[in-house]
Amino acid sequence: MSTKLKLVLYQIVSGTLGNALVFFRPEKARELSANRIALVHRNKKNLSISERLMRAALIQKLDKIQDYDVIAEQNRNFWINQSATDLFSELKDTFNTDFLPHCTFIFELLKSELSNHPEEFDTIVEIGTGNGDVLNYLSSEFPNINRFIGIDLCQDQIALNNKKYKDNKRLNFIASDAFDWIQTNGHDKTVFVTSRGVLEYFKESQLQELLNTIYNLGPTMFIAIEPNGADHNFETNPNSELYGHEPSFSHNYPHLFKNAGFNIWHFSQKVWFKATDKQTFVGAKSS
């Protein structure tokens, strides 16, 4: 029996079992599907085999959403409240299993860019800092940077971060909308960072406005580690498109950075999560 046929049979059997479990366990099904984004991102390690089957069946039943304004609003509403804190806690292991082995190479490249830049940078701002693990890591990797600021919509998570990292005096976590904070507090000689799923929740027009604002601050750099749909070809479709079950936005990041005036000094992509999407790495500078 071919591998492809085995996969098809597995999907049929698992789908049938999952749907049956959803039918016979409606209370558990409602619990699992209480929030769309949490359902999609839940750590399967924390679920029993029957719950994994139910989760897969429930994901397949999610209604398609095409209204970009509705999508952006729903995603924002999730990340701003306690549900985001719960998910950050559940996915905390991804710092060790995902970020450290797969993403840190771009910060080694950033070190070279900073050492060759005519001006000395003094601040790193992480947009969508989540549980703060990435920002804490960066504070150890860049000893010459004075300030490390983590911005996130979720006030509860920011409070947890400030408590967890109270002994690291170089870290400062702030509950705010990133665009609002940058308009008021952003300045030059800053490195902006996003890690593994932040800009995907911005509509294309919002993201372009954010990048334009950062570019106009003066000399800045930007490290973007963001997912894209596996079939999003930037050459044939330069515009943003929907992807995933949330859904979120697969952006053409090089195109948007260049539109804002940035120079791209690094661009690469890696297949992610069994080829259902890919991770895009962008290093950009405004001068």
From TrEMBL:
GO biological process: methylation
One Pfam family hit: Methyltransf_23
Coiled-coil spans in chain: none
Signal sequence residues: none
Keyword Transferase set for record: yes
Any one GO molecular function term: methyltransferase activity
Entry keywords, A to Z: Methyltransferase, Transferase
Superkingdom in the source lineage: Bacteria
Name of this protein: Class I SAM-dependent methyltransferase
Annotated source species: Gelidibacter maritimus
Lineage start: Bacteria, Pseudomonadati, Bacteroidota, Flavobacteriia, Flavobacteriales
